[in-house]
Amino acid sequence: MVGTGVFAEIFDGDLDVFKYYSEGEWKKSSSGKSVAIINPTTRKTQYKVQACTQEEVNKVMETAKSAQKLWAKTPLWKRAELLHKAASILKEHKAPIAECLVKEIAKPSKDAVTEVVRSGDLVSYCAEEGVRILGEGKFLVSDSFPGNQRTKYCLSSKIPLGVILAIPPFNYPVNLAVSKIAPALIAGNSLVLKPPTQGSVAALHMVHCFHLAGFPKGLISCVTGKGSEIGDFLTMHPGVGCISFTGGDTGIAISKKAGMIPLQMELGGKDACIVLEDADLDLVAANIIKGGFSYSGQRCTAVKVVLVMESVADTLVEKVKAKVAKLTVGPPEDDCDITPVVSESSANFIEGLVIDAKKKGATFCQQYRRDGNLIWPLLLDNVRPDMRIAWEEPFGPVLPVIRINSVEEGIHHCNASNFGLQGCVFTKDINKAMLISDAMETGTVQINSAPARGPDHFPFQGLRDSGIGSQGITNSITMMTKIKTTVINLPTPSYTMG
Length: 498
Ligand SMILES: NC(=O)C1=CN([C@@H]2O[C@H](COP(=O)(O)OP(=O)(O)OC[C@H]3O[C@@H](n4cnc5c(N)ncnc54)[C@H](OP(=O)(O)O)[C@@H]3O)[C@@H](O)[C@H]2O)C=CC1
Ligand SMILES: O=C(O)[C@H](O)COP(=O)(O)O
What we know:
This protein is of the alpha/beta class. The protein folds into two domains: 5-267, Aldehyde Dehydrogenase, Chain A, domain 1, CATH 3.40.605; 272-447, Aldehyde Dehydrogenase, Chain A, domain 2. It contains 14 helices and 28 strands. The strands form nine sheets. It has a seven-stranded mixed sheet, sandwiched between helices. β9, α5 and β10 (190-193) form a beta-alpha-beta unit. 3-phosphoglyceric acid binds next to loops. Residues 26-485 form the Aldehyde dehydrogenase domain. InterPro entries: Ald_DH/histidinol_DH (IPR016161), Ald_DH_C (IPR016163), Ald_DH_CS_CYS (IPR016160), Ald_DH_CS_GLU (IPR029510), Ald_DH_N (IPR016162), Aldehyde_DH_dom (IPR015590), ALDH-related_metabolic_enz (IPR051020). It comes from Tetracentron sinense. The active site is at 266.
């Protein structure tokens, strides 16, 4: 399955290492070095990928630049046709790609398949949306601005940015890669992908699906290696025309180092769930479980703090506790709800937050339990603002509950966070919900449902440290273009008489 059949050419069986993708070919790095991908469940090396060199990055950037020039001359319908082909190949090969996700990032097997299928759908939707929005431009006339006659006709259209550098995070290595690749390509750009180390092999398989679809050589490349080693070289490379990054604080550092190029940054979140007295508490409890614990809390859009009115807090906590007790805990292969978190350092970080909350007097609704990278789901009640878990993002199955005495208190906590990705509010009063949504300083507010990025064509953006710009298919296509105008100057004013 993995690295076999149509995927055989991406794997170097002699050295047991996956190859990187440059100039339309699968290659071994001249570094002779590899990077180990540690299976979060077994904590043993599962796969190895090439540790690419700076020279190899230079080569990729050079070919991406020349391939882009030709690609921009490829008709839009043809670009869309190739994307549709890639989408269908991706879906056809969902099983081996999902297997990589299970082994590299311990994603439960059903969710792993869903990620690949969702990615194929995203690519197809992007092809269609691109044809619609890139096929249209604007026509302006000069006499609408004071002092002007109708002597100038302005034609504006969206043109490519050049080479897009895409850096996705470990938690959706396929979906958050194609959410950058497809808009970049339909808009006439070339693309260099640096996949997350955990998730690289899934990403390499996905890239091979684009290769099989027949995209021109050099248009897509994929260089592997640790972000800490080749990351700066990539992000500061003069050949890059735009960086589309999803991840944690690394994104803040990148935005300070990058040159005068557009940045699309989707960073961390501390999504608050505000619960009012009149909320349907069964609905809230179900959404807290789905929002807080799916993929073991390793989603940027996970519910990361519950802010519940004191008068309903006891009832809500009991309902959530009952549901936590039903979550299955174990390996991703068994499709358990809670699976090992991505790395030992991540598990240690989560444990640090739990120990801090314990010392400062949080109520533990379950006993804290950990085995290697596997952390049992934990609800912490009576969390106070002096505890780290009230503000920091655990990216694990640990959820704090803060009891509030007024809605304003909840809104204040949400807005005092350095993050501003999403939030949600539960109430039966839609008027109140709208006022609260307007008061919450986050990129999106969900009313009566847990935060979520999908469906993938919805705008998705974060305020403050949660990001720059907006994602979602339409916004990503727009963000990966710039506006070009041509002005036709007439010797005499010309007005249409009707
Ligand atoms: N807002 C959003 O849409 C989302 C945000 N996130 C956030 O991502 C974080 C978890 O993901 P995680 O993968 O750990 O995030 P990281 O920020 O650690 O890594 C993200 C990507 O950046 C790469 N990278 C690391 N160092 C550098 C560098 N110096 N220059 C360039 N690239 C570099 C990583 O590569 P390598 O793996 O090799 O280190 C990886 O591909 C959480 O904070 C989460 O909230 C996650 C998903 C969605
Ligand atoms: O990175 C994430 O956490 C994803 O963007 C979440 O996507 P979803 O909310 O649609 O599951």
